Amino acid sequence: MRRHGDAVTAPDASKRRPGPVFWLLSGQVVMFTGIAAIFPIAPLYVAAHGGGPIVIALFIAGPLLANTLVQVPAGRLCDRIGRRPLLIGARIAFGLLSIGLFIDAGPLWLLTVLRLLQGLTSGAYVPALRAALTDLSDEATRGRRFAQLQACEMVGLLVGPLLGGSVALWRLSGVFGVAGLAVLAGIAPMIRVPETVSRGRVRADPARRFAWWRIRGVIVPSLALAALGTVFSMYDVVWPQYLSARGYGPFLIGLSISIFAVPILLLAQPAGRLADRVQRRLLVAPALLIVAATAATYPFLRDLSIILAVGTVEAIAVVAIEPSLFAVIGDTAPADMRGRAMGVGGLFEAAGLTFGAAGLGSLYGAGEGLPFWGGSAALAAAAALCLVALPSRVLWAAPAALSPEAFPVREKEVV
Predict the structure, then answer these.
(1) Which one of 8, 147, 201, 334 is at 20 to 30 Å from 235 when CA atoms are compared?
(2) Which residue spans within 164-252 are E strands per DSSP?
């Protein structure tokens, strides 16, 4: 109880109740933990069915490619029919497909098709997730919300692979059962997330195109996300080989990945607040340069303690990059086009992930330093672009004050 003059009032109960963002992120952390359980086991699953390196690559890279291709169409769809149908429907489809992979019956090509379809459902879900998070936040908290989303994914990466390894001791296909159950369980909190696309909204003129390639607030962060994704997936391929060549075994390799995730978890909240309080170009550009410098340094390092120290510096820099970039896209996109804007950002990020694994990852055999230096060059270029062209803040609630350089399209947005 608190007293105001002579009146006694009870604390506002609404402040104690979890809001829609809490339920959205709660569902995501449960889902992503289950999905991350698949990551270390998928190659073993294919090999157990007699698949060689090419089939393993298709089984792993195929869903990622499917995820990339569906992002923009899915973003358009969630702008038309709402966020909830894709948030919930796409995850139900993922869970049902997991049953087929868990049963483990049929030829390998059929199981690979099921995995590709899982990639499509994941790609349909991601733009709706990010668009809903944008809808449920405002310009003052958007960076913080995307930092919280990133932290949820780090929790999944910490817990999921350990869970998958444990389940695989019983049965390799069990990881797909765990993933399906986790995704279906994650739907429960998301049911409490309200639809953020109003049926009564006045839609924009269909003749007006969303020319995202002309919008600095979409194309610049999307290109930076592509560079960041390129480096992350390069590490997925190269990092185990890099540490193994220095004499370190699987346990220390896994430990190094976990240590990298810890600063991101601990600093997600303060980094998100910082992204909401400073000019994002002055935050993102230096952070990208730090990550570029650490990537370029790794080939010269041999001692594990030094490698881990450099990785910690890299993680501290990484923590604010992705949330800031998606916050810029969210601030820039008009409300009736947030789904497709997030789809564009997801498209570039997933394309970067695909290129990093297939392109930079394959360079490791030609020279240990080549993938690291290639990734460093991509990040340095992204840092220069962000420093020059990344918009600081766009407030769509006040169109009259909108800077033309941030959204150089002449038509007025109607929402």
Answers:
(1) 147
(2) none
Q: What is the pLDDT of residues 52-84, one digit of tens each?
A: 877 887 888 888 889 999 999 999 999 999 999
Contact 64, 119 (CB under 8 A): yes
Are the C-beta atoms of 256 and 243 separated by less than 8 Å?
yes
Is residue 188 in a domain? yes
Q: Which CATH number belongs to the domain containing residue 335 in this structure?
A: 1.20.1250.20
Instruction: Please tell me whether residues 342 and 247 are part of one structural domain.
Output: yes
Contacts of 315 (CB under 8 A, 6+ apart): 260, 261, 262, 263, 264
* Alpha-carbon gap, residue 40 to 30, rounded angstroms: 18
Alpha carbons 328 and 305: distance in angstroms, whole number: 36
Q: Indicate the angle between helix axes 53-81 and 84-103, nearest 10 degrees.
A: 150
DSSP-derived secondary structure letter, 331: H
Helix (H) or strand (E) holding 2: strand 2-4
Q: Give the count of beta carbons closer than 10 Å to the beta carbon of residue 44.
A: 13
Q: Which of 217, 213, 409 is nearest to 327 (CA)?
A: 217
Confidence of residue 403 (pLDDT cuts 50, 70, 90): very low
Q: The pTM is what?
A: 0.83
> Closest by alpha carbon to 338, among 215, 174, 164, 207?
215
Residue length of the chain: 415
The residue out of 136, 159, 192 marking a domain boundary is: 192
Tokens 């993922």 -> residue: 94
Co-location of 381 and 304 in the same domain: yes
Q: Which helix (H) or strand (E) holds 7?
A: strand 7-9
Q: How would DSSP label each residue in 201-240?
A: --PPPTTS---GGG-HHHHHHHHHHHHHHHHHHHHHHHHH
**Which amino acid would we find at residue 94?**
F
Judge contact between 111 and 49, C-beta under 8 A: yes
Burial class (CB in 10 A: 0-12, 13-18, 19+), 358: middle
Please choose, from the candidates 265, 255, 249, 263, the residue with its C-alpha nearest in 3D space to the C-alpha of residue 315: 263
pLDDT tens for each residue of 206-249 = 445 678 888 999 999 999 999 999 999 888 878 888 988 899 88
CA 80 to chain centre: 23
With beta carbons less than 8 A apart as the criterion, state whether 290 and 314 touch: yes
What is the extent of the structural domain holding 184? 17-192
Whole-angstrom distance, CA of residue 228 vs CA of residue 291 = 9
